[in-house]
Amino acid sequence: MSKAKHFVGLDIGGSMIKTIILDSSGEQVGPIVEVRSHVKDGYEATFRQLNIAIDALAANAGISLDDIGGIGLDVPAPSSNGVIWGKANLGDDWVGTDICSKYKERTGIPTTMTNDCNAAAVGEYSIRHKHIGGLLLVAPGTGLGGGFVLPGGKLYEGANGLALEVGHISVPFREDDGELPDCTCGLKGCLEAWVSLVALRRRLRLELRKTEWANHELNTSDSTIEDKAFQLRTLAENGDTLAIQLFKQQGYILGYGIADIVRVFDPGLIVIGGGLAEAKFREQFMEWIKEGFNERAWPVYRVSPIDPEKITTEFEWATGGDAAAAIGMAYTAQELFS
């Protein structure tokens, strides 16, 4: 007799692929398997790595590949219906390729695909077993990603799979010289231009030019601006004034931007992902987010006009960690292919 079907989640990152397998009841079987992604070497090189990971997952679960009922994979790039629309950190041959269909051809297993932030949003939803409302994930990292899960657990991707590019809404904040900051997307004044690792580097470079920080330890260091920016989290955890100032600005502007997104989607729950979810000062950062949100949001998006004790928009930190996207894609595969 054939065993009950299992479902695989494959989270393709710029350097690593994180993978899990769920049994038919939705329980994870065995540990997370991680392999190198080799995305710069082209999608065929990555496909070989995916196969290595799936073989390991199947071995850990004590099943054959025939017992896998579906695969969910996510990519760190904009995509539409399985086709990569932008290079991001991938090799050239990914762009314009129907990755989902090609990988399904390789394995013969039903496959679905979305981007990494969408996958993480589904993962955060699926591990909140008692939550039945909507969920908006906003994840500051190198850039600023987002994903929106509708009440009941269905991911909202838009007509072309390109919805929730939250980092590229406009916010009315300017540099000290009055100019709007450039965004990596080619526009100016985007939320991501203020809330991201790239933005943190820019802001740090500008601040270190000021006389008030002339004797700051980062100004006397020979490290690159990239290395200095990576030090800011530790400095903030130790109470450094400059680091706290920079993170406070990011938190406030993030909350301000979230208020406009909430005005459109009214998700009820905002989940903040990214590396700061593990920072020692994360509760302070969350307060800065709420400060910006409260500045911009209408009162009805903060508390109910009917019941003043009821908060209408809750904020939580992400809890799925690095595995959230893989979890999300495994659950998505189970939902689609069971």
Q: Could you say what the CATH topology of the largest domain is called?
A: Nucleotidyltransferase, domain 5
Gyration radius, rounded: 21 Å
Order of helices and strands: EEEHEEEHEHEEEHHHEHEH
Do you know the CATH architecture of the largest domain? 2-Layer Sandwich
Provide a brief overview of the structure:
The protein is of the alpha/beta class and 338 residues long. The chain has helices spanning 43-61, 99-107, 116-127, 197-208, 225-237, 241-265, 282-296, 324-337; strands spanning 6-12, 16-22, 33-36, 68-75, 79-80, 83-84, 111-115, 135-140, 144-149, 155-156, 269-272, 314-317.
Structure description:
Helix 4 packs across helix 5 and helix 4 crosses helix 6. The mean pLDDT is 94. A hairpin with a 2-residue loop joins strand 5 and strand 6. The chain is 35% helix and 17% strand. The radius of gyration is 21 Å and the shape is globular. It has two domains: 104 residues, ATPase, nucleotide binding domain (Nucleotidyltransferase, domain 5), CATH 3.30.420.40; 185 residues, ATPase, nucleotide binding domain (Nucleotidyltransferase, domain 5), CATH 3.30.420. It is of the alpha/beta class and 338 residues long. The strands form three sheets. Strands 3-2-1-4-7 form a five-stranded mixed β-sheet.
Task: Provide key terms for this protein.
single chain; 338 residues; alpha/beta; Nucleotidyltransferase, domain 5; five-stranded mixed β-sheet; 12 strands
Summarize the topology.
Layout: E1 6-12, E2 16-22, E3 33-36, H1 43-61, E4 68-75, E5 79-80, E6 83-84, H2 99-107, E7 111-115, H3 116-127, E8 135-140, E9 144-149, E10 155-156, H4 197-208, H5 225-237, H6 241-265, E11 269-272, H7 282-296, E12 314-317, H8 324-337
Helix pairs in contact: 3-8, 4-5, 4-6, 5-6, 6-7
